[in-house]
Amino acid sequence: MKEDTSETILAKRTVNRIEEVAGTFPGYRRAHAKGELYEATFTPSGGAAPYTTASHLRDREVQAIVRFSNSSPNPSTADALAAVKGMSVQFQLLNGDITNLVGITLPIFVTKSPQTFFDILNTVKSFKDGKPHFKDMVKLFASYPESRAAFQMIRKLKNTKSYAKGRYYAVHAFFLVNKEGLRTPVKFEWEPEAGVETLSIKEAVSLPSDYLETEMSERLQIEEVRFRLHIVIGEEHDPTDDPTKEWPKERQRIEAGILRVKTKVHSDENNIMFDPTILPTGIECSDDEILPFRKDAYAVSYERRKKGQ
Asked: Which domain holds residue 253?
């Protein structure tokens, strides 16, 4: 049996801490526990072809599975109480492989260090409530200045009116690699064709706890939901190892394709793991330490929920 490394041990400790803070819900993901799967099709525009050999970003339409979720580790948390929403896409490549793109409604992550993420969980006692309390914010700002921007965004973040009306960011930098071997730093964003629309606090508190799933079901009876994949091209001094920092707004953007979300999937979603480090030839992970940490933590969560833990 393969021995645990320091990285996998930290991932297990982190998942344990999430369970201690937020509770244990057997059979569910340890974060973004509440979600629904949908069938989709992704059609590339060809705009990314000069930058990558990955066929699904060049010229090959592929099927996909999309999971929309709220961020709480508690599957019974009302949608309005977990302001950060998620959109994970698993592209089913023509050679039988898969690749994943995991996004949230924030453009940055709370830390650039797996150890700091674990330490933050020991500080934020209100993690399970979706937004940290003010007293916890004071502690966080003093102890973890790198996390200040993300937590300020979380405090101000409004609930999306619909999963179809959220803008989702992959947060981490990646590299696209073309046939000449040129590596280009990039970030990925999903832009909703229906436009971005949020709710006021008054509107959000009056909605049912599962309003997002209900709204999506009703919407898909009328029309398919579409997102445009934008690729942001990084420049020389844009950090690729720090997901707590945004790149400048004026960076070049390429429209890489359209995702068409069509129908809900009625299957066991626990068979699917959206590991963001599973990538095809033509896309590579950056030097962001959170990426391999997410891989390890997702694997721990997957193993436990498959065992009904």
From this structure: 6-306
